[in-house]
Specification:
alpha/beta, TIM Barrel, about 40% helix, binds NADP nicotinamide-adenine-dinucleotide phosphate
Length: about 300
């Protein structure tokens, strides 16, 4: 028995606002600003159609320039590329978020005219700040003409169930997705069930554990047993879970290898894991956080004022 799914490099998942997001995204966390435009351009040339940056990565302007170069050189439409950015914790709050949107506009508007998705990067502020920011983002979606930059969709990152419940109770617009650290050592079954029940997509970051688990003896033995590289095993696991998957490499060969885990449209090949490997990677009780200094941001107390 094998676990398989019918997805390819061009597959998009429908969000709760009707927009469709490409299922593989090129993440640019820790890519130096000086290299970002080139690597984003190369990733798009290879076939990625989704770029994930953040104000905190200090490379969103360069990421947008990479997108613009790709659009200019290929004649592809702006709508063919999905661009996400995120507000820092310091940019949460009513005035702070209004100012942040102006700063994002300054960085990216000329290159990409609008942002597909803006996320609150983490819940690690206060109820008041999270909710005030959300109101500003909602306003930007509802009245794009009043926003410093048009925004198509809004979402969150690193939110736990209590943060989401609080937001959903107050929101006019639901978050389209929650971007989370997700991999076999951090499968977050309860949080994912809450997302599913509320029609909020799970987007996986650090699917390769930022490299931390790539020397895990069990993973190495699965690689030997299957003849499938450990990176591909982990990406397959993520795609088979139904996540939108964000993966980063600063190395052109790996950028391509990671994309090629998905078949090209029309190619006679499927993403799969054998039952043995699927079982071996199934660790529902594991909660091993490798990012955010190992302090799970989804567990940040909700009631800090
Ligand atoms: N919202 C959040 O709080 C948050 C947090 C973290 C990440 N993210 C987003 O998610 C994206 C991806 O996550 P990530 O960058 O943390 O980690 P990741 O994609 O799990 O891992 C990246 C690491 O794996 C290496 N790598 C990439 N492809 C490989 C391959 N085929 N074989 C072996 N090693 C490989 C990379 O090295 P090289 O670069 O040397 O190839 C890098 O060290 C980020 O770029 C960012 O956009 C969001």
């Amino acid at each position: 028995m094998t676990k398989t799914t019918e997805i390819n490099q061009e597959t998009r998942y429908k969000l709760n606002n009707g927009l469709e997001i490409p299922i593989i995204g090129f993440g640019v966390y820790e890519i130096p600003a000086a290299d970002t435009a080139d690597l984003v351009y190369q990733a798009l040339k290879e076939g990625y159609r989704h770029i994930d940056t953040a104000v905190g990565y200090r490379n969103q302007a360069q990421a947008a320039l990479g997108v613009r170069r790709f659009l200019n050189e290929t004649g592809a439409l702006r709508e063919s590329v999905w661009c996400t950015t995120k507000l820092t914790n310091q940019q949460q709050g009513w005035e702070e978020t209004q100012k942040a949107l102006k700063e994002i506009a300054k960085d990216v508007a000329e290159a990409i005219s609008y942002v597909d998705l803006v996320l609150l990067h983490s819940p690690k502020t206060s109820s008041r700040k999270r909710l005030d920011s959300w109101k500003v983002l909602e306003e930007a979606v509802i009245k794009p003409e009043s926003s410093a930059i048009p925004i198509k969709a809004i979402g969150v990152s690193n939110f736990g169930v209590p943060h989401l419940q609080e937001l959903l109770a107050a929101a006019r617009i639901k978050p389209v997705l929650n971007q989370l650290e997700l991999h076999p050592w951090l499968p977050r079954p309860e949080l994912r069930k809450f997302l599913k029940d509320n029609d909020i997509l799970a987007e996986a970051y650090s699917p390769l554990t930022q490299g931390v688990k790539l020397q895990d003896p069990e993973l190495l033995s699965l690689e030997t047993q299957s003849g499938i590289s450990k990176a591909e095993l982990l990406l397959n696991w993520s795609f088979l879970q139904g996540f939108v998957v964000l993966v980063k490499s600063a190395k052109p060969k790996r950028i391509l290898d990671n994309l090629k885990v998905l078949p090209k449209k029309g190619e006679d090949r499927k993403v799969f894991l054998s039952d043995d490997i699927w079982q071996a990677l199934d660790k529902p009780n594991s909660h091993d956080v490798v990012t955010w200094n190992k302090q799970d941001p989804t567990e940040f107390p909700i009631d800090i004022k």
